[in-house]
Amino acid sequence: MTKEKCKERYGKDIDIQLQKMYEINGFSIRKIAKCFRVSRETIRIMLHLFDIKIRSKSETNRRRILSWMTRQKISKSHIGLNKGEKSPCWKPKIQKICLICKKIYEISSYQKEISKYCCRKCKDKSQEGKLRTKEQKRKSSEAHKKLWQSEKYIKKIMKNRKIKPNKKEIKLLRFLQDNHFPYKFVGDGKIWINGKNPDFINTNHQKKIIEFYGDYWHRDEKVKNGGDGGQERREIFAEYGYATLIIWESELENKDKLLIKIKEL
């Protein structure tokens, strides 16, 4: 079927009629086929001939207006399809004995190794006398601090964390590279100085460090020190002969001032 034959048979303005019915009024192919008393396949061919885009299945389903009765029938047909034994993931429950009250209780198969007690009360009873004293807490904190002083432990933890520079740190790094400042990002745990990990370090054999502070996360330090912070870190790095510069997130907006600040370090 060609465009000319189609216009001869159904009228010269058939393309306008189809466009109006299908695109503007949102009629379905079935409804248009009934109007012209032809098959649905004929209407599809005609739509292709006149370059009218056929709607996808998802678009046609969106346009469908279901009656209340139809919706009720659909919802009833779905009830209990994937519940209990009918579910493809269903597994029978396992019986276990509670460690405290020796009561038999049922659990799901995936809780087999986790579950030990039948209720919350039994779990609380099991924890009685196990709460740590202040002395025990102090000892555990000291032991933990000692771990963070060993380089092997720190490197292992930082590897597992897979730390990468955030968007603002990348922005500062690009600024440093564009202005030919010899600094690299080491905030992923590459370098540690007395248990502290700096953000940027000088690569030109100069003992200089740049610490990048976010306005939100370090806002308390900003308030205490009147616009500046990192006094504790400055003192720690100064013990090893490092000069430290603190750059705040808000300072990235004024590049001229930031350039002068870095040059003064």
What do these coordinates show?
With 265 residues, the protein is α+β, with helices and mostly antiparallel strands. The protein folds into three domains: 3-63; 94-123, no CATH class; 161-264, 3-Layer(aba) Sandwich (Endonuclease, Chain A). It contains 13 helices and six strands. A four-stranded mixed beta sheet has the order 3-4-5-6, sandwiched between helices. A two-stranded antiparallel sheet has the order 1-2. A hairpin with a 5-residue loop joins β4 (200-202) and β5. α3 (29-36) crosses α4. The longest helix has 14 residues, at 134-147. It is flat, with a radius of gyration of 36 Å. The mean pLDDT is 83.
Topology:
Layout: H1 3-10, H2 14-24, H3 29-36, H4 40-49, H5 57-63, H6 68-78, E1 94-97, E2 104-107, H7 120-127, H8 134-147, H9 151-161, H10 167-178, E3 183-185, E4 200-202, E5 208-213, H11 219-224, H12 231-239, E6 243-248, H13 255-264
Parallel strand pairs: 5-6
Antiparallel strand pairs: 1-2, 3-4, 4-5
Helix pairs in contact: 3-4
CATH homologous group name of the largest domain: VSR Endonuclease
What do the pLDDT scores average to? 83
Which stretches are low in confidence, meaning pLDDT under 50 for 5 or more residues running?
A: none
Q: Sum up the overall morphology in one term.
A: flat
**How many angstroms does the end-to-end distance come to?**
81 Å
